[in-house]
Amino acid sequence: MLQTPLGFLYVYINHEQVEYSLSELPLKPIEICNYEVDNRYMIEIDKSQIKSGDIITFCIDTDQVAEIDGGDCLVEAMFESDDLFLAIGGYDFNNGDKNNFAYSFSVIKNGLKAEIIDLEYINDFRVAIAWCDTNKEDYYTAVWFAADPCI
Questions:
Q1: 6-46 pLDDT, tens digit each
Q2: Distance (Å, rounded) from C-alpha 81 to C-alpha 6?
Q3: Residue 49: helix, strand or coil by DSSP?
Q4: Does the N-terminal or the C-terminal CB of the chain have fewer CB atoms within 10 Å?
Q5: Which residues share a beta bridge with 59?
Q6: pTM for the complete prediction?
Q7: Which residues, in sequence order, are CB contacts of 66 under 8 Å at separation 6+?
Q8: Residue 4 in 3-state DSSP?
Q9: Which residues of 62-78 are buried (b: 16+ CB within 10 A; e: fewer)?
Q10: What is the 3-state secondary structure (H, E, C) of 79-137?
């Protein structure tokens, strides 16, 4: 289980806590930039645990409320305090038809929620999480990029 500076990260499928895989990612998410974060991880859920109609939540055990951010199909839950910036990110995924989504993300009070719509187009299911202290230059942009699960 991942312990973030804000609290432990829990993952639930339909309100039942599940195990997840955790992989460390490079701290420089894009080779051509100089953005650095303190920690960066990929969180993966075993696809065999998921079925259409499931709701998967990624919750940090904190009283701090997440802000909504992202862009295009990227959805990120952002947490900011005076000394820390943390983001959890996931992509809405469709099969090329804007009306036929495999899953859809939204930001909740303490993390992200994904609604599984169609398993046919899901090869793997993952989100990224990253954080750094706010003393670093351009920490917001660094964490925003680092919490993108496709980078």
A1: 999 999 999 999 999 999 988 776 676 677 899 999 999 98
A2: 10
A3: helix
A4: N
A5: 10, 111
A6: 0.89
A7: 77, 78, 79, 88, 107, 108, 109, 110, 111
A8: strand
A9: beeebeebbeeebbbbb
A10: EECCCCEEEEEEECEECCCCCCEEEEEEEECCEEEEEECCHHHCCCEEEEEEEECCCCC
Report the C-alpha gap between 133 and 139 in whole angstroms.
7
Amino acid (one-letter) located at 51: K
Nearest CA-CA partner of 37 in 87, 103, 98, 102: 87
Name the residue type at position 5: P
Contacts of 31 by beta carbon, 8 Å cutoff, 6+ apart: none
Say which residue the tokens 């909740």 belong to: 108
Q: How many residues does the chain have?
A: 151
Is 19 buried (19+), middle (13-18) or exposed (0-12) by CB count in 10 A? Answer: exposed
